[in-house]
């Protein structure tokens, strides 16, 4: 009897494994929910819609983009962390969720390395330093001088951790003081800057581009160590006088921990194909981004490197966990 029970149990396990494999092979059999941690119209929304539209051609199922916006991205991260690990809920996340929060939040409800399965890197994103157009400021040096003449009187918008650390690095290097105003996303902060209720901020080029062209805001510099092909006239922060300044954010795609490898591989193949096309690469350049796909393993290593970098950046900027 014991041998029969053991044999039956082994058969059940084998059948279960075969069923799970068959289910994974059929993936996807329905639309996939793509969660973003920022508001509709944000850079993350633009990125997800673009790569999602192309990945749909490979997977033959649409992506339904759902915004779970918050300043820290914790709402979106928690939603995906708790989702069934079947590949039908994915997360487009970046430095805020996957690195910065470990050092900026005293209590974090998730672990960026433990609670998610990496799928693929999507973009590397330099930021643009912009000011409201009615200020008599046309360079980084003039912004620094203006701020030093008015200690604590200027304010700046914060839509995510990347924008926050970029400003803190500037404040620390230049020795200026200014007040931060937090928003649930950079799009909302940008509207306040355009309306004249904020003085400056670091923002994704995709969000700022139209307003820059309409001269509703003024761009001063880019945060990366190299100039942007989409805005070649803008100096880097280092070229503008802030020595050794270099900061970029990133976006990547993740699934809940425990998602089957076959499903992760299917998602990775679809997104790598979408990201690496010449049209996609050209589009990312127009948006002021660098399209960069990866294997799941490479993204896992990249996350570890980003966590180490953010630990250093937060310390360098003198930021404290809230």
Question: How would you sum up this structure in a few lines?
Answer:
Residues 1-22 form the signal peptide. The protein contains 11 helices and 11 strands.
Please specify the SSE layout and strand pairing.
Blueprint: H1 2-25, E1 32-36, H2 43-59, E2 63-67, H3 74-81, E3 89-94, H4 95-104, E4 116-126, E5 128-132, H5 140-149, E6 155-158, H6 161-174, E7 179-182, H7 186-194, E8 200-203, H8 205-213, E9 217-222, E10 248-256, H9 261-276, H10 278-286, E11 290-291, H11 296-316
Parallel strand pairs: 1-2, 1-3, 6-7
Antiparallel strand pairs: 3-10, 4-10, 4-11, 5-8, 5-9
Give a written overview of the molecule:
It comes from Ottowia thiooxydans. By secondary structure, the protein is an alpha/beta fold. The chain has eleven helices and eleven strands. Helix 6 links the parallel strand 6 (155-158) and strand 7. Helix 2 (43-59) packs across helix 9 and helix 4 packs across helix 11 (296-316). The longest helix has 24 residues, at 2-25. Residues 15-20 have low confidence and may be disordered.
